[in-house]
What we know:
Elements: H1 10-29, H2 34-45, H3 56-76, H4 80-85, H5 87-111, H6 116-127, H7 131-140, H8 147-176, H9 186-206, H10 208-218, H11 221-241, H12 246-256, H13 263-288, H14 291-296, H15 298-322, H16 327-337, H17 342-353, H18 359-390, E1 407-410, H19 414-425, E2 430-434, H20 437-444, E3 451-452, H21 458-463, E4 471-474, H22 479-492, E5 497-502, H23 505-514, E6 518-521, H24 524-537, H25 542-566, E7 573-575, E8 578-580, H26 606-609
Parallel strand pairs: 1-2, 1-4, 2-3, 4-5, 5-6
Antiparallel strand pairs: 7-8
Amino acid sequence: MDGHAVGIGLGHVVVLLAAAVVAVPVFRRLGLGSILGYLAAGLLIGPSALGLFSDPEALLHVAELGVVMFLFIIGLEMRPRKLWALRKAIFGLGAAQVLTCGALLTLVGVAAGLPWAAAAAGAMGFVLSSTAVIMQLLEEDGETGAPAGQRAVAILLLEDLAIVPLLALVAVWAAFNGSGEAGPSAWQSALIGIGAIAAVIAVGRWLLDPMFRVLARTGAREVLTAAALLVVLGAALFMQWAGLSMAMGAFLAGVLLSESTFRHQLEADIEPFRGILLGLFFLSVGMSLDLAVVAAEWRLVLAGVAAFMAVKAIGIYGIARLFGSPHREAGRRAALFAQGGEFAFVLYAAALAVGLFDARVGAVMTAIVILSMALTPLVLLALKYAAREAGPSLDGVEAADGLRARVLFIGFGRFSQVVSQSLLARDVDLSLIETDVEMIQAAGQFGFKVYYGDGTRLDVLRASGAERAEAILVCVDKPEVADRIVELCKAEFPHARLYVRAFDRGHVLRLVKAGVDYQIRETFESALTFGREVLLGLGFDEPEANEAIADVRRRDEERLELQIAGGLTAGRYLIRGNLQTPQPEPFRRPRRAGQVIGDVPESSDPADQSASS
């Protein structure tokens, strides 16, 4: 498909890139998320505003490839066993949500004066949530691998499958409405869809891996990239031909390649295309919003958005609670899925073609879907704000109150859990507080009694027994939070010894200045142990390896002492208020026989270059 076919020239490409580059960082900086930035930018440059693009529908068809590639990458993360484990969530939870919300929204459409068939088509189109919006939001929040995120993916898969029977229903309604063209029957559509899925599974299982193996032997990197794109787009096109969604085809191809030896290469090849095209999809959705329709029918559009989103959210929340989800997860899922999606455009176009919708109803329903997609990030932000104001749900979790023990842990993540083992082995009494409710619940499954408590609050520290503790262990993830806790403890509980997990060298300097009793960079010692094992594996004998590690530790301590004594920070000496840059010592190659390893310049200290060191 060339640029003229979709009405896009080089100038349009520059405009699209500029809109994304400007809008997305601004909206993310404001805490509104990248999706809303893309939608706003698309609306601005679209035909309803500046008019830089006259045919957003054509652009939308191309941009849908971003959703396709996104689903392929999600499929690569979903091994067949994992997908099989989600079968109950897909066909149980997903089907219950689709059917319940579809019935409720049909009643809303009928109450608004639509005929039953038109109301059902409008309702079922809105039931199919936006895969692109939901997956992007889950990815931004890092929830795609969490149990709640996996259930969301399962529901989206069922919704992708639901497009087949829904399009068949449109064909049935078309027959009842006297449409001139008779499409395939429902059972024929189902057989074609099942056959297409079977064909993709067969090709993926027996042909794809051998094909990539042969191509890899050629050594041509660009051929592998072309093959990756061929697999994704070929599977998507084949599924579309069979009446299924392109996204479902790409997802299935990803699942079949999830255990391939080329999985990571495929992901790396597809990722750049996925990101650009997905952004283009959101831009084109923003362009598709017809402000003239919204202005002319603003009462109907706004009422439709409010009614459809509210009723769908109520249905989703009820089904989630019925299937055992806690209140917080059910509320977030309701906010996440309460919008319409890109499949609504397909279903509404089919309904318009067979006469179920007239032009006015089709335009209003499309505007309702687009506005609901734009509102979803804002709804989630409001939900997060409300949850933060109300405080986290403490179902099954006790708040810290009246604790007393020799040692108080503030933060109980992976670092603290390892530290606690040696203390428990000597029967030392521990008090454990944490702000992550999921972490508290997970630790409880392993026999730890962890209390909810924010260590930056003086009243919580008192309730946690800080006044009686001999030692306070500050093991939180964020350096600024640790600094605040140290400040409070030094001022209010000077008798307690302070042991603090440090983030990097700069944090170490602040902690030393604050007067803590002991600090350690969180990965420093483990990195030294790792390096020692590498030396042993490379053939160095044990004394040589131990000497090298001891020398690294000694030189690190010397640099730290210089920084503390002389004000050396970030590779500079602070002398009489003036910054002077020292000459770093050059690198020297280590000798194999008993040589001390040369200095690493402070500005190149590997232990300080990583964000996690």
